[in-house]
Amino acid sequence: MHLQAVLDCGRIVAQVTADDLDRPTPCAGWNLADLLAHMIGQHRGFAAAARGLPVDPAVWEDVTLGPDPAADYAAASADLLAAFGAEDFAERRLALHEFGVVPASTAMMMHFVDYLAHGWDVATALGVPARLDGELCEHALRLASRWPADAPTIWGPGAPFGLKVPVPADAPAADRFLGFLGRTP
Question: Are residues 116 and 4 in contact, defined by beta-carbon separation less than 8 angstroms?
Answer without folding.
Answer: no
